[in-house]
């Protein structure tokens, strides 16, 4: 007898990202209670399942949702506010001053806009570090996307807390609020070595261990950061964190641009995960992350967009293409960071970096987080290699469906949970507020 399921999704091409990197033509996916129960040829699954609903996507390439392994989603409100500046000038003279005046409602609106952008361009999960992160979590919950969230922790007061004790209480409160939610998980997120101190970093890591969640931090983002760390501590950033006991599989380090070969080995051997953010690093002239060297050393790597005012978008498809191309020209070797490797980083690597093993591939037992690309677009034909198309030919505008936990959140121009026109009106009002702060 056929097995009941909630949804039977059918499509022309399915790129599973399973261990064998299987691609199936004329494929089907059975989904029950937000979980994939079977994957295979359409003719087989149509005979094996009786779905409550049949979602036929026809000429589409279905693949796992992309995972943005580092961003500051509410910075959509500051997109284009201060461009063409060095990292430290950009951060300390333009971004920090406005951020100190933000309210939870503004943070929530910026996060909603970022969630809409990511859903529209094929991201189903992201890792977010920002101020007043409780408001970000509420936006995540409203939009239906998936995220690992964490309050940014500084060695100085922020709008969310007066001191370190208060910051750690905020992090603990986030975990208590969302610990039973299937789409929101938390992390402890000290900002960077130059905005913290040893006590803050060690207490942050201890809290991450207590809550059994990841620790996420900016690390070795620029030569300026290295110079500051040497001046303040007598050590380079990687060695500094290593001596404080912060490196290991629990830690996800963003950027990792200014690295020596020895530091690459330290990160890889310790099991520290790395989020590669090439477009932000290029825009701020921070340098080039040695991504291929890190991978060759055995490091686990994801890809992130960073925030929308140092990128200036949250589009993981363009980020994948940039990651591949810039590494080739930086190394002057067209064979490095191949398309399949980059796609692995944006799916399976992101899932591992965020400690979310249910994500990253389309196979039985995994979460039904997936996207569909329109194969009728001119730039999508002919298609000989789906992984190549995903990395080199796709720009994100081809996304016609985004599903998280078996729920369609975006399809063919419409959002199912968001009133997008109303959100745009609110964003326009928020932008007027931002301009008044300049």
TrEMBL record:
Recorded family membership: Belongs to the metallo-dependent hydrolases superfamily. MTA/SAH deaminase family.
E.C. designation(s): 3.5.4.28, 3.5.4.31
Keywords (A to Z) from UniProt: Hydrolase, Metal-binding, Zinc
GO molecular function: 5'-methylthioadenosine deaminase activity; metal ion binding; S-adenosylhomocysteine deaminase activity
Protein name per Swiss-Prot or TrEMBL: 5-methylthioadenosine/S-adenosylhomocysteine deaminase
Gene3D superfamilies reported in the protein's UniProt record: Metal-dependent hydrolases, Urease, subunit C, domain 1
Residues that bind Zn(2+): 70, 72, 218, 306
Top EC group: hydrolase
UniProt organism field: Desulfovibrio ferrophilus
InterPro entries: Amidohydro-rel (IPR006680), Deaminase_MtaD/DadD (IPR023512), Metal-dep_hydrolase_composite (IPR011059), Metal_Hydrolase (IPR032466), MTA/SAH_deaminase (IPR050287)
Cofactor(s) this protein requires: Zn(2+)
Entry-linked HAMAP family: MTA_SAH_deamin
